[in-house]
Amino acid sequence: xxxxxxxxxxxxxxxxxxxxxxxxxxxxxxxxxxxxxxxxxxxxxxxxxxxxxxxxxxxxxxxxxxxxxxxxxxxxxxxxxxxxxxxxxxxxxxxxxxxxxxxxxxxxxxxxxxxxxxxxxxxxxxxxxxxxxxxxxxxxxxxxxxxxxxxxxxxxxxxxxxxxxxxxxxxxxxxxxxxxxxxxxxxxxxxxxxxxxxxxxxxxxxxxxxxxxxxxxxxxxxxxxxxxxxxxxxxxxxxxxxxxxxxxxxxxxxxxxxxxxxxxxxxxxxxxxxxxxxxxxxxxxxxxxxxxxxxxxxxxxxxxxxxxxxxxxxxxxxxxxxxxxxxxxxxxxxxxxxxxxxxxxxxxxxxxxxxxxxxxxxxxxxxxxxxxxxxxxxxxxxxxxxxxxxxxxxxxxxxxxxxxxxxxxxxxxxxxxxxxxxxxxxxxxxxxxxxxxxxxxxxxxxxxxxxxxxxxxxxxxxxxxxxxxxxxxxxxxxxxxxxxxxxxxxxxxxxxxxxxxxxxxxxxxxxxxxxxxxxxxxxxxxxxxxxxxxxxxxxxxxxxxxxxxxxxxxxxxxxxxxxxxxxxxxxxxxxxxxxxxxxxxxxxxxxxxxxxxxxxxxxx
Length: 604
Ligand SMILES: [Zn+2]
Known about the structure:
- The structure is a single chain.
- The chain is an alpha/beta fold.
- The protein folds into two domains: 2-257, no CATH class; 291-602, Alkaline Phosphatase, subunit A (3-Layer(aba) Sandwich), CATH 3.40.720.
- It contains 21 helices and eleven strands.
- The strands form three sheets. The protein has a seven-stranded mixed β-sheet, sandwiched between helices.
- Strand 10 and strand 11 (594-595) form a beta hairpin.
- The chain is elongated, with a radius of gyration of 28 Å.
- It starts with a helix and ends in a 9-residue tail after the last strand.
- Bound molecules: zinc ion.
- Zinc ion binds next to loops.
C-alpha cells in the first residue's frame, strides 16, 4: 500500500518536472508563472489520476513489464507537441496542456485494454488487430504533423487548411509541386509502410507480453480490484475519447466547419479581397500623377496598452517611453490619446484595421479592400516585415493581407531585428513598409533580449515589470526604425497603432471583457517636407489628438495620409481629415456592442 502510494505521487511529479525543464529550455516558459495555465494544470491532474488509478488497481510487476510499450505513444505525442509549442513557436500556447492530458490517458490505455482482453482465448487475432489499428492512427497523426512541418516549414493548422481549401492558388501550387514529385510519392509510401510495421510490432508485443504474463494483472483478487479496473477503464477510455476530439487534427477540422467561426470570416475575406480589388479606383487627385517619392512606414503593435506608456499616460510611474515622450513634444508628431482597438483580439481587430471594413460602415467583409492593395495600386512597392507566426489562427487574417505585399519577411527574432532587415532589403524610391512587431505579447519577458532587460530603465520593483519592459523595448525599437528611416529611406510618414491593449490579469479576450483590453497607443509622424507638401494634414491631426479613434478606421486614416484615396475611402473615417466624424457619442468597440463612452475611465 505504501509502495503504491509512493509511486502514485512520485511519477507525476517527476514527469511534470521533466516537461517543465524541457519547456524552459524552449525559451517561452521563462519563469514559474508561465506554467500557471489552466490546461497545464489539467495535464498534471490527469497525470495524478492515471498514476493513482494504475498503482492502486494494477499489479506492480505488470505495470513494470508493460512500461516500455505503454510509454511509446504518450512520449511521441507529448514530445511532438512539446517541440511544436515550446521550440517551434507554435502560438496559442494555452492548448499545449491538452496534449499532456492526452498523453496521460494514452499511457493508461494499454494497461486497461490488455487487462480486459489479455485473458480472452477467443478471437485472439481480433484483439491484436484492434490494438494495431489504434496504434496505427496514434502513430500516424504525429508523423503527419511533423512531416508537414518539414515539408512546409510551418505548423499544420487553421491557416494551412484555409490555404488548401480556399482559392489561394500559390499555396495549392506549392502543395502540389512538393507532394507531386515521384521522390515524395515514394517517400510517402515508405513512411506509410513504416508506420504500418511500427503499429503491427507495437500491437504484437503488447498482446504477447500481456498473454504471457503469469498471475493476475490486478493487485489483488478481491472484488474491489475488479471494480477498480472497471472504474479506471471507463474513466480512462472515456477521458481519452473526449480528449482526442480536442486536439490535432479534430480540433482543427471542427473549427473549420463551424458556421460563423473565425474561419468563416477569413474565408470570406480571402475571397472578397481578390474580387473587390478589381473595382477599386482612385478618386482625384490620382496618386499616380503626382504622388511623392519616399517611404511610408506603418507599424502594427501587439498587445500594447497606452495605459503603460508614459507618453500617453503622463502619471504612469515608470518611464516606459523616453523616445516617444520626447517626440510627442515636436510639431511632427500627433498622438491619439483616446485611441481604442475595435476588438479585444488580434484576428478581428486587424481584419478591420487593415481593410476598409469598419464597425460604422461595411462590417460584413463583403465589399472591402486592404490597405496593401491601395498602396500597390498607388504605385508603392510594398514590404511586410513580421515577427509573428505566419500560420496561426490569431494572425491568419493579417497573414492573408501581408501576403498581398510585393515582398515579405517572416522572422523569428526580437523586434529590434527590424533594423537589420531594413538595412538589407532592396531599396525602392516609392515604398510602404508594414512592420508587424511581436510587441507585448504574452509571455512578456520572452519578447525582450536578455542583454537589454536591465538597461531599459524599468525599475525592478515595478509590479508590471515584464510587461513594461516590452513597452520600453519597443520604444527603443521604434526609435531605431525612425532614425534609420529618416536618414536612409526618405521617410515621409510613420504611423503606429496596436492591435489591442492588455489587461494585466486577463490579457485580452472577449470574455471577460475589460476596457483596458482596448486601450491602444496610436501616433502619426509626418516629415517636415511631407507637411510642407500637404500643409492641411498636421494641423488637423494635432487638433484630433484628444478626439476618440478606433483602429478599424486605420484604413481610411492611413490611406488618407498617403493621399491614396480610393472609392473605398471615406473622409469621415479619416482621423487626418477635417470631416472626421467619430466622437465620444458614437464611438464603439467590440463590434458595436460596447460604447467607448461607457469606459470607466471617463466616469472618474
Ligand atoms: Zn494581438
